[in-house]
Design a protein that fits this description.
The complex is a heterodimer of chains A (52) and B (242). Helix content of chain A is 81%, strand content 0%. Chain A has 52 residues and is mostly helical. Chain A has a domain of 34 residues. The termini of chain A are far apart. Chain B has one domain. The longest helix of chain B is centred in the C-terminal third of the chain and has 44 residues. The mean pLDDT of chain B is 91. The chains are: A mainly alpha (52), B mainly alpha (242). Chains A and B meet through helix 1 of A and helix 1, helix 2, helix 3 and helix 6 of B.
Chain lengths: 52, 242
């Protein structure tokens, strides 16, 4: 399935692996922080609503 | 309807919430499609062999590394002139995305350069200005984190962004300014004679679209997060004072 990359296999596969890893990490960190901050804000707003 | 309506945080979140899933889905389709097309279904280059497959990541990442800074520059100017918080927060949100694209461009460039040039790195005008651009990204993010007052941080980072723009421009045009060094000129040009062959060009276009859409999706998501984080800080401060 993987094309024959010949003597450049290391350069090509490392480029793809590293880049996709960084992109996945960036998306993962962004989504995780978005969820955490949204939940924290909801909690603060709820608390302030209860305390008037 | 005016574009300045989106300077309202509530309006910004409501609108971006609607479009974000579509942009994210389009980004995934373009990126997966473009990278698979480029990796599995394109031939090797007659001179560069299979390393030409790095092109589909390296070029879009490098383009977006520069364009992300350009977007931050526009957002910073809007902050300086019109004092819209959303624009300052959008610039802040874009910085880690641009920095990641810069790392990808530098790393894939080094991995490509080693077999083609015989070296991982050279103090070539384009490579050096790109490295300095990356350092500006780091400095920009560090400055945002170092200053507690959001408005002061936005002011100072906007100035840093203006200064760093010199290196964003140099990263793009260094090859033209100094006609020396290892890095080639523009691979993607409107001039058909200078452009890459269609067999490489179409998957590259798809990957560029994927990187652009991913950038937009991440900036929308991260700007929403920055808006919410800012509101949370303001509410906590108000709670402490009452």
């Amino acid at each position: 399935m993987i094309p024959d990359l010949g003597k450049y296999a290391f350069a090509v596969l490392t480029s793809y692996g590293l880049s996709l890893g960084l992109l996945f990490a960036l998306v993962g960190v962004s989504v995780a922080r978005a969820r955490r901050v949204k939940a924290e804000l909801a909690k603060i707003e709820q608390r302030l609503k209860h305390h008037g | 309807m005016s574009i300045w309506e989106y300077a309202n945080p509530v309006k910004f979140i409501r609108t971006t919430d609607l479009v974000l899933p579509w942009i994210a889905a389009a980004a995934v389709i373009c990126l997966v499609g473009g990278l698979c097309w480029g990796f599995f279904f394109t031939p090797d280059d007659y001179r560069q062999g299979s390393t030409v497959k790095i092109f589909y990541i390296h070029v879009p990442a490098a383009m977006m590394a520069i364009n992300a800074w350009a977007m931050m520059l526009i957002a910073s100017l809007i902050w300086i002139v019109r004092r819209h918080h959303v624009s300052a927060l959008a610039a802040r949100a874009a910085a880690p995305v641009g920095a990641t694209f810069t790392v990808i461009a530098l790393a894939t460039g080094a991995l490509w350069g080693q077999p083609m040039w015989g070296t991982w790195w050279a103090w070539d005008p384009r490579l050096t200005s790109f490295l300095v651009l990356f350092l500006f990204y780091l400095g920009y993010m560090a400055l945002w984190s170092a200053i507690e007052n959001d408005d002061t941080a936005a002011d100072l980072t906007s100035i840093l962004c203006l200064v760093g723009s010199v290196f964003a421009i140099l990263s793009r045009y260094a090859v033209l300014f100094w006609n020396q060094g290892l890095h080639q000129g523009a691979s993607l040009s409107m001039d058909a004679e200078e452009n890459v062959a269609d067999v490489f060009w179409y998957p590259t276009l798809m990957c560029i679209a994927g990187f652009v859409l991913l950038f937009v999706a991440l900036v929308f998501l991260r700007t929403q997060t920055e808006i919410r984080a800012r509101r949370a800080r303001a509410l906590l401060t108000r709670e402490r004072l009452t």
